[in-house]
Amino acid sequence: MYPEIKPFFTSTLKVSDIHTLYYEISGNPEGVPVIFLHGGPGGGCDEKDRSFFNPHKYKIVLMDQRGSGKSTPPACLEDNTTWDLVKDIEKLREELKIEKWHVFGGSWGSTLSLAYAQSHPDRVKSLVLRGIFTLRKSELKFFYQDGACHLFPEAWDEYVAPIPESERHDMILAYHAQLNSADEETSINAAKAWSKWEMTTSKLYVDPEYIKRTEEDQFANAFAKIENHYFVNDGFMRDGQLLEKQEIDKIRHIPCIIVQGRYDVVCPATTAYALKKVWPESTLHIVPDAGHSSRETGIAKLLVEATNQFADLA
């Protein structure tokens, strides 16, 4: 990854009566524009996210999605859907007077990247996607109900602990009740447990430092509440919509590189493979010694190689 840099411009964009988004620009003011779409939903951007791009060649745009990061109001679920976020990305592009840009997203960011590209294919120069997630019921069931628990049984015990046994047949729905409880202690404890489950399982080797962020009330609250809100509502789309032929046909002409960890438990490789099968024109790299996190060495290396490859794309 490239050395860490600071943004040369930061601002906010009011996108509705409720929501105001934080965004920043770094790198080369005259460079080729790229937008980084963070994960979660609800995760917010991190200063290290700028380092996937050559700062001499790229004009790097980071945006905190509705309710996430520095956007306000925090953890707000009202008017917060996939299609609201797609409109926000387009509104920001217009605000910055960018004709076309590269789109980069991992995990939920890959979901949003696909949704945006399929909605505005004429505005996307390329796609770099990591840890493919399309919010199908089968993907949610694997991670939150019956799948990943077989690989991380001790972490699963902590995840299910806040939920009464009688409600564990639908963990997403059970967590929805607790995350939106009127009792603040119940809500924040649930948020931390939900967030810790994902952070614990995100790397091939469990990283205690990576998990520490889940102890921050504001991060855990936004991350868990917004994620759960999207999952309870099936991502506000048809099951498997992003993989449907008529949707892929809209973006088939866009150069796309997919980077997927072989042992990604959060977003298993089966989804990246499904995307490759319906979109054979895309390039799929499966990293043999990596999990989910974009920070894992093999994944980060391929992501940077991908952005380098597209930096001079006309």
From TrEMBL:
GO terms, biological process: proteolysis
Query: Does the keyword field hold Protease?
Result: yes
Q: Which residues form the active site?
A: 107, 264, 292
- What GO cellular component term, any one, is given? cytoplasm
The record, for Pfam families, names:
Abhydrolase_1
Q: Name one GO molecular function term.
A: aminopeptidase activity
**Compartments reported by the entry:** Cytoplasm
Q: Which reaction does it catalyse?
A: Release of N-terminal proline from a peptide
Q: Where the protein is mainly located, per its record?
A: cytoplasm
EC nos: 3.4.11.5
> Which keywords does the record carry?
Aminopeptidase, Cytoplasm, Hydrolase, Protease
- Domain AB hydrolase-1, chain residue ranges per copy: 33-294
Write down the InterPro entries for this protein, in alphabetical order.
AB_hydrolase_1, AB_hydrolase_fold, Peptidase_S33, Pro_iminopeptidase
PANTHER family according to UniProt: PROLINE IMINOPEPTIDASE
**What protein family does this chain belong to?**
Belongs to the peptidase S33 family.
Q: What is this protein called?
A: Proline iminopeptidase
